[in-house]
Structure formats: structure tokens, C-alpha cells
Amino acid sequence: MSTTQSAATVGGPSKAARRWQMVGTYTALTIVTLITLAPFILALLTAFTSKAQFSAQGLSVPMPPTLDNFIALGDRRVDFAEAAWVTLAAVLVITVGQLLFSVMAAFAFARMRFPGRDLLFWLFLATLMVPQVVTVLPLYFMMSEVNQVGTFTGLVLPFILGSPYAVFLLREQFRQIPQELLDAMRMDGAGTLRILFGLVVPLSRPTLVTLMLITVVTHWNNFMWPLIIGRNRLFVITTATQSLQEQYANNTTLIMAASLLAMLPLIVLFVIFQKQIVRSIRISSFR
């Protein structure tokens, strides 16, 4: 065996083998990416295609692109623009409520002492094991008793008082803050709320942003509860899209325009918070 062959054997794969390995890796990644993006590309092309062109040619590049499908969304029985505003308002209220109440609950579980604290925390955390479908019917009956079926209040009320996952994540974050910092502020005359919102919350900003992103995505895509509580009187973007599919099943371009609008805010959110979304996935997986 020659010296060159011996060096190649000892040093691992040759330069040509590494190059082909890299080509294979990038080829596989490209194929997986195209398969993943295919539904989004389909929605994008179809949404800007006129109904006449789609009927004649099927899926194709729109020639020329048209905004007629987006304009038509506001002329239907289900006002898609109104549903988008309702969704935006609901997500905003739920996100603010969940962060506020989760922060206060997590601080109480992490830093305050009271009888039964740990037992109460673990009982609260155990509700994570209960599927949402199990709680939908009792929640509906509760909203019905107070006449909140088909109202915005009924849509957001079950979710604004915090979530077990958020409380758990924030409790673990708050417990990592040195007690000496809290004691120093308390010696300076700061009360509990000032310590919480003046020290603990700023130090936990990355975790709070992560929870904000998870909450926004979850409730923007929420379908079951808005469908049940709305009762065809209050639509959000997911139920409005589903209603359009039922009413205009043969108008594919209109449905794709609605689907594209439903995806657009989350795409913008992803572009703005790419790094934070990756962090949120990592936290969700390993904590």
C-alpha cells in the first residue's frame, strides 16, 4: 500500500468522498425543504390566480396575478376581515392575560411561603395531563350559565388566567434568580410587586418572550374552542376559513386566499423572531 493510500486510510474519507457526502446531504435537505414548502407554494400560487384561469388550467403560475380573491373575502356571508380582527384582539388579550397571571402565580410558587404551596403547585401542574377536549364541554356549560356563548368574553375568558405550562416554566426561571438580589431590593424598601416587576421580570425577559411566542401561535391556530363557543355568531380566522370551505367548496382560489391570509401573520412573526422561536422549541423540548 502506498504512502498516500495509507494516509487516506488513517485520516478518514478522501476529499472526493467528503464532497459526494456533502452533495448527498444538501440534496436530501433540498428535497425535504421542497416537500415541506409545497403546501405554502400551492396556496401562494392559487391565491393570486383568477377563478377562470384555475378552472381552465388548474394549478399554474398566475398570468397575470390578481387580487380579486382577497377582495372577494370581504363580500361573503362570513366577513373574513372581521374574523381576522377578532382573532387579533383575542390573541392580544389572551397573551397579555396569560403572561400577567402566570408571572404572578409563578412568583408565588417560587419565592413566597404559604401552607400547601408545593402540593397546590403539583396539583395545578397535573392539569397539563388533561386533554383540551375533556374540558371543552364543562367550559361551554359554564359560559352558557353566564350567557357568554357567542361572545368575545366567552372566547377569551377560559385562557386569560394563565396556563400550567407557563407557570411551570416561569417558576423554574424565577428560582434561578439569586435570593440575595431580592433581599437587597427588600432592604431598600421595595415591596413584593416592585421586586417582581422591577427585578424578576426584566431578568426573565427571554423566557417571557418565548412564552409570548408560544401563546400567540397556539391561540392564533386554535380551532376547537372558537368553533364551539362561537355558534356561527362569532368567527375567528380558523373558523371563518372552515366556513368558507363549507360554503364555497368549488371556489378553490377563494379558499386558498383565506388560507394564505391566515398564515401570513405567523410567517411575519417567524421572520421577526427567528432566533427566539428556535429557542422556544429548544425550551419546550428539554424543560
TrEMBL record:
<dbReference type="Pfam" id="PF00528">
    <property type="entry name" value="BPD_transp_1"/>
</dbReference>
<keyword id="KW-1133">Transmembrane helix</keyword>
<keyword id="KW-0472">Membrane</keyword>
<feature type="transmembrane region" description="Helical">
    <location>
        <begin position="191"/>
        <end position="217"/>
    </location>
</feature>
<comment type="similarity">
    <text>Belongs to the binding-protein-dependent transport system permease family.</text>
</comment>
<keyword id="KW-0812">Transmembrane</keyword>
<feature type="domain" description="ABC transmembrane type-1">
    <location>
        <begin position="84"/>
        <end position="273"/>
    </location>
</feature>
<dbReference type="InterPro" id="IPR000515">
    <property type="entry name" value="MetI-like"/>
</dbReference>
<feature type="transmembrane region" description="Helical">
    <location>
        <begin position="119"/>
        <end position="143"/>
    </location>
</feature>
<protein>
    <submittedName>
        <fullName>Carbohydrate ABC transporter permease</fullName>
    </submittedName>
</protein>
<dbReference type="InterPro" id="IPR035906">
    <property type="entry name" value="MetI-like_sf"/>
</dbReference>
<feature type="transmembrane region" description="Helical">
    <location>
        <begin position="23"/>
        <end position="48"/>
    </location>
</feature>
<feature type="transmembrane region" description="Helical">
    <location>
        <begin position="254"/>
        <end position="273"/>
    </location>
</feature>
<feature type="transmembrane region" description="Helical">
    <location>
        <begin position="149"/>
        <end position="170"/>
    </location>
</feature>
<keyword id="KW-1003">Cell membrane</keyword>
<feature type="transmembrane region" description="Helical">
    <location>
        <begin position="83"/>
        <end position="107"/>
    </location>
</feature>
<keyword id="KW-0813">Transport</keyword>
